[in-house]
Write a structure and sequence with these properties.
Layout (H helix, E strand, L loop, with lengths): L2 H4 L1 E7 L2 H17 L7 E5 L9 H17 L2 E9 L1 H6 L7 H10 L4 E6 L1
Parallel strand pairs: 1-2, 1-3, 3-4
Length: 117
């Protein structure tokens, strides 16, 4: 494994149980068939799209970032998976993605990715 892969990690935040099962299965599948090393990735189920604004930041600030610092790696990317139909039916500004992106970057995370599914 290359030094960069060993010292960085991706955290994938999902909004529900089905998404958690799906992404864990996909990651496991790709780990078994990939000919190249994959960056370590954790999946965190927030149990609801409205929790992106509060719980995501709390998990990063109080759990993932301190653990990374203690163990000598960094969180390189935060990915947020969400159901796009929720934003079509309800208020599309349920989560202020731009504000969330800025806050995550201020915490030292290089990349912020939205995964609308």
């Amino acid at each position: 494994m290359t030094k960069q892969l060993e010292t960085s990690q991706v955290v994938l935040f999902v909004e529900g149980d089905t998404d958690e099962v799906l992404f864990k299965a996909l990651l496991n599948y790709y780990r078994t068939i990939s000919k190249t090393e994959m960056r370590p990735c954790r999946v965190c189920n927030l149990r609801g799209v409205t929790r992106y604004s509060s719980k995501l930041l709390a998990k990063l600030r109080n759990e993932y970032l301190p653990e990374a610092k203690k163990n000598g790696y960094r969180i390189q990317a935060v990915c947020c998976s969400y159901d796009t139909d929720v934003f079509e039916v309800r208020n599309p500004l349920m989560v202020d993605w731009n504000a969330l992106r800025k806050t995550v970057r201020r915490m030292g995370v290089e990349q912020f990715v939205q995964l609308g599914i």
